[in-house]
Structure formats: structure tokens, C-alpha cells
């Protein structure tokens, strides 16, 4: 068995990735959970939050599960996302990544989560649920 290199925690909820107008405020519905992410660019405002929080009239991509790399991670660590995304890409598993000051979050479609867990475990990662 491969040596465990990092611990990854699977969140229980299913998340959505919503697209709003670049001038919109961060909506209150997005903030009603322990995890949400808001990113504003010159083109859009993207929100990641539990998909049950997203109103029906909002454009969003649904059925994402979150894998949290347990941190905090030191900024000097190199290749964490590259290693995980490489393992998953070999199995044709698409990801959506979010990085914060302390750690990284990998979103994987619900239909691929069991395979992703299997691949990451085989790759030496310790998965907790």
C-alpha cells in the first residue's frame, strides 16, 4: 500500500456553481452554509454553495461534491493540485478547484465521486467521510 501523503475530506452536501452578472452583489442565499465561495472577475460573479440554496431562476451547474485537502497547507508546498488533478485526469474525471489561504478544495461531479475516491486512495491519499 502507498504511503498516505495528505488527508482529504469528502463533504456530505451536493454543491452548485452559479454564474451571476459581474455587477451583482454576493447574494444572501449563497452564504447560508458552512462553505461558500464567491469570485468576482471583470466578466462575472461565480458562486459555489449548496445547490439547494440556489434559486431556480439562477444559471448554475449542479451535482458537484467537494473534496477538501485537510490543512492548513504551507505556501511552500508544491504540486498538490497538480498531483490530484493528474490522478483524476488519467481516469477522465473533470474537476473544479478552489484555493483559499489555508487549503484547496476539489469539486468533482457526483457521478464521478466514487471513482475519484478510489483513484485518490490508490494514489496514496487518506480519504475521510
Strand content: 25-35%
CATH class: Alpha Beta
Quick one: CATH superfamily? VC0802-like
Reported for the largest beta sheet, the result is: 8 strands, mixed
Uncertain residue ranges: none
- How many domains in all? 1
CATH topology: VC0802-like
CATH architecture name:
2-Layer Sandwich
Q: Cα-atom Rg, whole angstroms?
A: 15 Å
How many beta-strand runs? 8
Mean pLDDT: 92
Question: What coarse outline follows from CA principal-axis ratios?
Answer: globular
**Helix/sheet category:** alpha+beta
Report helical residue fraction: 10-25%
Q: Helical element count? A: 2
Q: End-to-end distance, in Å? A: 20 Å
Question: Which sequence of SSEs, written as H and E, runs from N to C?
Answer: EEEEEHEEHE
How does this model look, in words?
With 129 residues, this protein is α+β, with helices and mostly antiparallel strands. It has one domain: VC0802-like (2-Layer Sandwich), CATH 3.30.2130. It contains 2 helices and 8 strands. The chain has helices at residues 80-90, 113-122; strands at 7-10, 15-20, 37-40, 45-50, 59-69, 95-99, 104-109, 126-128. It starts with 6 loop residues before the first strand and ends with a strand. The mean pLDDT is 92. This is Aspartate kinase. Residues 14-57 form the A9CJY8-like N-terminal domain. It comes from Clostridium algifaecis.
Blueprint of the fold:
Elements: E1 7-10, E2 15-20, E3 37-40, E4 45-50, E5 59-69, H1 80-90, E6 95-99, E7 104-109, H2 113-122, E8 126-128
Parallel strand pairs: 1-8
Antiparallel strand pairs: 1-5, 2-4, 2-5, 3-4, 5-7, 6-7
